Amino acid sequence: MNYPITPAVRFLRERSIEFQPHVFEYVEKGGTRHSAEVLGVDEHTVIKTLVFETNEKKPLIVLMHGDCQVSTKALARHLNVKTVAPVSPEKASKPTGYLIGGTSPFGIKTKIPIYAEKTIFELKRIYINGGKRGFLIAIEPRVLRDVLQIKEVEIAVKE
Fold this sequence. Notes:
The protein has 159 residues and is of the alpha/beta class.
């Protein structure tokens, strides 16, 4: 199967991490619902890579279930800061090196903190962005812990 060779793919290959590539037609504003439908999987197993910043303008990444939202209040409390807010697409690309809709936690340009919803690690398999729009990779969630410095949080709000 042909799939894009992105910084995320290079990162995983360098560490001999097994993954299954899934390439599909990207739909603007389709989000995780579209990805889940195309792959025939539960949206809860499709993990979003979201870029936020604190009131001190410090960027961070949050990995969240596709069918959940991030409670920015709970995240701010956890980080012990006043506020946390999503960043603009331009601001998200700068530290990650990826376009919105194609952001992967693997192979990011700048070292920034990565937080993951704790319940992600209860899943057998997750589908997470491979570094390009319309490209997800299937991996075991423990890989996140194995190769990234993940901090687990409980900040999910069901949609």
